Amino acid sequence: MAQTVLHIDASARLTGSTSRDLSAQIANKLGTNIIHRDLTKAIPQIDETWVQANFTPADQRTEAQKAVLALSDSLIKEIKAADVLVIGAPIYNFGVPAALKAWIDQIARAGVTFKYTENGPQGLLEGKRAVIAVASGGTAIGSEIDFASGYLRHIMGFIGISDVEIVAADRMMVDAEEALAKAQAQVDTLAA
């Protein structure tokens, strides 16, 4: 079965990026139709105008408010079109890059990608899979100083994607060869 992959690159490095290399391998392995979103092409941070537009009922939005939400709508459309999200995420200062956080803020929208219920938030983008290639210089994935991989897993679940796999090339500055070998082994065992 042909799969559509939304491939998101968050590394500021265009060349020599481990997260970009791994996520490209994963996207090519899992998808036949790949939508690529490079977050070095600026995703604006949300602001008061965006928040006001977002919380105005859709049928009451002005043309200006619709224009403010146009990028967010487009980013969400990319996710909805995808069977699999592949995210290349380096760890910067123990967390996700600002560009990735800006993308998350644009796509996590009440009533669109999640809703509030009496039992708490419920994701609305179910039936998808996410594979996140995380690279770090010194942070061990899953350690008490890793504020990236758990956050990304949580955000995916928050919008309804509970099938999340982490491919880790962590502690690259400690032993790059071992980290890359471990990550490559994970990539090699991913099922399409």
Count, helices: 7
Q: Report the radius of gyration as a whole number of Å.
A: 17 Å
Distance between the termini: 9 Å
User: What percentage of the residues does DSSP assign to strands (E)?
Assistant: 15-25%
Order of helices and strands: EHEHHHEHEEEHEH
Q: Provide the low-confidence segments as ranges.
A: none
Q: Mean pLDDT across all residues, rounded? A: 96
Largest sheet, described in full? 5 strands, parallel
Indicate the percent of residues in helices: 25-40%
Helix/strand structural class? alpha/beta
- Assign an overall shape: globular
In spatial order, strands of the major sheet run 2-1-3-6-7
- Could you give the count of β-strands? 7
Account of the 3D structure:
With 192 residues, the chain is an alpha/beta fold. It has helices at 18-30, 48-54, 63-68, 70-81, 98-107, 149-158, 172-189; strands at residues 4-9, 33-38, 84-90, 114-117, 120-123, 129-135, 163-169. 36% of the residues are buried.
